[in-house]
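1st attempt posting a full record on here, be nice pls
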Amino acid sequence: MKRLFTNLTFWVLTAITLGILLGHFRPDLALLPVLDAPIKTRFMGQELSIGTTFSELLSGTFISLVKLFISPIIFLTITLGIVSMGDLKKVGKVGAKALLYFEVVTTVALIIGVIVANVIRPGDGVATAQLKGGDISKYTKGATEFSWWQFFLDNVTLQVLVLAILTGVALSRYSGRDRIVDWFNLASKYIFWGLHKVMILAPIGALGGMAYTVGKYGLGTLLPLAKLMGTVYTTMAVFIFGVLGLILRSCRVNILQFLRYIREELLIVLGTSSSEAALPSLIDKLQKMGCAKSVVGLVVPAGYSFNLDGTTIYLSMATIFLAQVFNVHLDLTQTLTIIGILMVTSKGAAGVTGSGFVVLASTLTAVKAIPLEGLALLLGVDRFMSEARSITNFIGNGVATIWLSNNENALDRTQMERAFSRTPDLEDIREDNQTVLPTREK
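the predicted structure (as C-alpha cells):
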C-alpha cells in the first residue's frame, strides 16, 4: 500500500477519474467562475494562459508552470549537446536525418488516416440537422494561406531551437568555452531539479483538465459522432503499436516497455490534453534511458514542430469524414491533392492557436470542395479527440529520438535496460528533491 500511495501513476490516474466524475456529475462546480477575466501573458517566449473557471485554474496553473521550463531546457540541452558532439558535420547529419524521418513517418500517418476513413466511412449516415453547431469564426479567421515565415514567428519552440543551434555552433568554435559550458551545465541541473518538484503537481493539473473537458462539453456530445471518435482512437492505436512498434522493433526496443517507462507522462498528456505539459520530462527521461543528449536536444524540439503523427492522422480523417457527411465524392486526384496540402499545413499545427482545428479549417479552405461550416460538427468532440492526438504526437517524438539515437550508435543499451527495469514513482522525485544542489566545480 505504501508503494501504491507513493506512485505518481496512481495519483494521476486517480485524478483523471475524479475529474471525469466531477465534470459529469457537478459541471457547475467544475465550471465555477473564480477569476473575473482570463490570465494571459508571455514569459521566456511561452504563452501562459489560465482560464476563469475552477477547473481551468487547476490545469492552467500546472501547464503554465511546466511551460516555464520548456525554453531553457531546450536551449541548454541542444547547446550542450552540440558542444559535446564536437563535430559540426555530425550535427548537420543528425538534423537532416531527423527531418527526413519526420517527413516519411508523418506521410505514412497521413496515408493511413485517409485509407481507414475511406474504408470505415465514419461520416455516412450522420444527420447534420440533428447536431448542435457552434461558432467557428475564431477558427476560420486563422484559415489563411500557409506561410513558413509566419509559422516560424508563431512557433517559439522552433525559435529556441534555431537560437540554441547557433549558440552551440558558436561555442564549439570558441576557445574559451569551458567556463561557459560549466555554467550551462550547472544551470541545467538546477532547472531539471526544479522540474521534478513541479511534476509532483501533475495530478492537480490532470484533474482540472479532465473536469473542464467533461464539464463543458459533456459525455453526451460523444454519442452523435461516436463512430468518428472510435475510428480515430482505433487508427491511432494501430499506428502506435503497428508503425511505431515496428520502428522500435528495428532498434531492438520493445514498444510496451517504452510506454511503461513513460506512463506518467502519458497520463499527464491525457489529463491535460497538452503534449507540452510533458515535453521537459520527456527530454529528461530519454536522456536517462541512454539516448545521447545531443540527439535528444535536436530531435525532440524539432519533432514538436515537424513530427505531429497524431495531428496528421486526425486532420486526414476529419477531412474525409466531412466529405462523407456532405456527400462530397472525392476522386483520386482530389484525394491526392488533400494529401499534398496536409503534408504542408499539418506542419503548422504546433504554431497556430487552436492547433489542429485551425489547420483543418485552413485545409478545407484550400480544398474548396467541402463546406467549411462542417467544422461546427466537430466542435463538441474535438476536445475529446485532442487527447488521442497529443498522446500519439508525444509517443511519436519519443520513438523518433530512440530510432535516431540507435541509427547514430548513440544509444546506451545498458542504461536503457536499467531505466526500463526501474519503476519510477514519487520516491524518485523525492530523492531528487532531497539531493543537495550541485555547486560549480573550480
